[in-house]
Amino acid sequence: MPAPLKLAVEPARGLADHYVQGLLVCFLLIAGLLVVFITRIGGILRERDARLAELRQRAVEEEHIVRIGLLASGAAHELGTPLSTLSVILGDWQHLPTMASDGELHNDVLEMQAQVARCKSIVTNILMAAGETRAEAPTETTLHALFDELAHEWEQARNPPRFDYRNQSGPDPRIVTDAGLRQMVFNVLDNALEASPDWVALDVRCEDDAVVVVVADAGPGFEPGILRRLGTPYNSSKGRPGGGLGLFLSVNVARTLGGRLHAENRPQGGAVVTVTLPLAAIAIEDPDDDGQE
């Protein structure tokens, strides 16, 4: 019949004793487990610290955006009154007999009126866009119509020598958009035009349930330091006060919509900025799909 195994315990024999060997095995197992657990705990703590640092950085950036929005809104309110006054004065000048008799002066007044009207329109857009990166004033459209309208509006406003626009997105779902999305695309296009006055390209396509917006230019490209700090405020090589806010705001708008913004230099020269947005973040759910299985 089975019986308990009796081992002679002779610690004086050192490692030759089976009891001492068992103690050594237990010690090694405990030491190995401690190393594994401590390593895992250290990794978790490092991930937590990195996450907290990212959240703190995002909070600082969002606070910075709020301050910029408040500054822009305040400036727009302050500019509204003098622009309205200029518009009234120019309207009175237009009907003066001396202005009507002098064709060149009359044309100058008309041009000034047009420019004042444009300034008032810009101020109005700033006031409308204040806070709208959170989709406070959404409008319904389709994917093709949105980017066709954005491309046409930007081309008419900036009038670049060459602007190549291609909309290769196959599906055309109904989407909801706001001024934040529009301003993000305009910021990227404006930066490309400033770096490459002769040529700018805009490509729109759909990949894996996401809309991909690609803006390319033939300028000098991004400096390595700019790419490393992409998405931080005042990250610009233009050397003027307040520079670098366009891409900073664009990165945060893309992040708010659940997407991302990536920038790189082209091998043949120039730069490419790619904005990827999930369609689910802007698409309107069809109520007819709820009953389908």
Key structural traits:
14% strand; elongated; alpha+beta; 293 residues; Heat Shock Protein 90; 8 helices; 5-stranded mixed β-sheet; Helix Hairpins; 2 domains; disordered C terminus; two-stranded antiparallel ribbon; 7 strands
Task: Please describe what this structure looks like.
This protein has 293 residues and is α+β, with helices and mostly antiparallel strands. It has 2 domains: 18-130, Helix Hairpins; 135-282, Histidine kinase-like ATPase, C-terminal domain (Heat Shock Protein 90, 2-Layer Sandwich). It is built from 8 helices and 7 strands. The chain has helices at 18-94, 97-101, 103-129, 143-158, 179-195, 224-228, 245-256, 279-282; strands spanning 139-142, 163-167, 174-177, 200-206, 210-217, 260-265, 271-278. Strands 2-4-5-7-6 form a 5-stranded mixed sheet. Strands 1-3 form a two-stranded antiparallel sheet. Helix 1 packs antiparallel against helix 3 (103-129) and helix 5 (179-195) packs antiparallel against helix 7 (245-256). It is elongated.
